[in-house]
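Interim report to the steering committee. The following record documents the input for 22alpha-hydroxysteroid 23-monooxygenase (496 residues).
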Amino acid sequence: MEQLPFSESWVFLVVIVSSVVVFYASKLLKNRGEDEREQKAFVVPRGNRGWPLIGETLDFIASGYSANPVSFMEKRKSMYGDVFRTHILGKAIIVSSDPIVSKTILQNHGNAFIPCYPKSITELLGKSSILQMNGSLHKRVHSLIGVFLKSPQFKARITRDIERAVQHSLSLWSGKTDLVYLQNETKKVTFEVLVRVLLSIEPGEEMNSLKREFEEFIKGLICLPINFPGTTLYKSLKAKKRLLDMVNKVIERRKLSLKKTEGNTMPSIDVIDVLLRDLGDPEVLHQHRLPLDFISGNIIEMMIPGEETVPTAMTLAVKFLTDNPVALAHLVEENMEIKRRKDNSGEEYSWNDYMSLTFTQNVISETLRLANIINAVWRKALKDVKVKGYLIPKGWCVMASFSAVHMDERNYKNPYEFDPWRWKNIGDAISSNIFTPFGGGQRLCPGLELARLEISIFLHNLVTTYRWAAQRDEIIYFPTVRMKRKLPITIMPLQH
Ligand code: HEM
């Protein structure tokens, strides 16, 4: 092959090298441009910091006391969009009322978010509480509890226990000549169930003192974060200490009996049992070296999400049904039908029987949507998170507002109406982004099915055996959802 003269080969080389340089430079510039455009495309949500120190807290609280608890959200959504910035309860915070953004927050891929609660709550919970722990330990504890609550043995036993507790309470209420304050009375039923699930304590003095101390303890969850003798937080921390002592005693008893029955493969009877057995596993102990008071602390903290929520849902279901005689009649019909079948066959009700009462489950879904018992969850971003055009900067607190999604007419037609029939059409939405009363993702409520079962059993026994008359009352949404007068009712046996 003929060789190019030196000068020509040099020119050829220069041309090749410069084309390569130009190619890569333009690629680099293009990438940088794209990066910049991308950076610009993701914006920190707009909003208002409000007044110095208090921010927009007063407006936020006022909406919680009004008939339209999402008015705070709606006003800001209309000004800034579905994701906005505000400053409430002492924190600058990004609020999401967008189902996709909230889903990203809940799913928490890449562990970008950790729970973020007001200071008084953080202090009361302790770092090793399931509500605050993160990473692999959280995953393990969450799944242990979830698996236990789904086990067939647990389901069969707890169905009988709930029936007994509900039937006993209803018979006491119906014998009363004075008013029954439903929100308080249902708490007694569900507390009994909760302590059975967690630590198998039977009704009696031990359960009563556990309840007394627990009530003192939770008063501190929403209070000024001042820990000084006489303050609510101080009393609450003292109550927690007494609670820990009580639960520790139960654990010691159970440890002894576990030792005696070492090697047995009987299924766990409660959450203490589940956690004790797991800690007894030498591999787990080696990995985490968890002290026993990890269990007692968690038992107490697991009472928090279960204690208020279920009785509030029961009470609000009764309130909504009282105000909607057509829905009530439909519910009675469905429940009477299964009662007749069971009475004729003499068969016991199973967990599945209750769960397959379609209209009853729709009443429960609609109650949870409308009541928004847990109206939001709070998180803190550990890194910059980009989603749907928004940038949630590292270090910011973010609130995924469930109520703003549940009450948005783009998601639900006539959102303020109690309409259990809507679930006939949108049944699938139960598992979608627009219906999240039990949260979602990594921290999806493990008590979800148990809560539905408790409410079903309560409604079934109430409507098939009794009738009631409720006095006027109204719902308050701040700091937690509740009836202003605890929903006073009179209750009497059905005349057959
Ligand atoms: C109507 C009743 C209930 C509602 C509306 C409800 C709602 C919720 C929500 C929204 C969360 C997620 C919190 C977050 O993401 O930070 C949650 C978590 C939790 N719930 Fe429930 N809950 C209910 C009943 C129960 C019951 C009966 C139990 C008890 C067994 C329970 C145990 C828990 C626990 C242990 C967690 C923490 C899960 C974790 O962080 O991994 N809940 N609940």
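The first strand starts at residue 83 and ends at 88. The committee is asked to note this result when reviewing the revised timeline.
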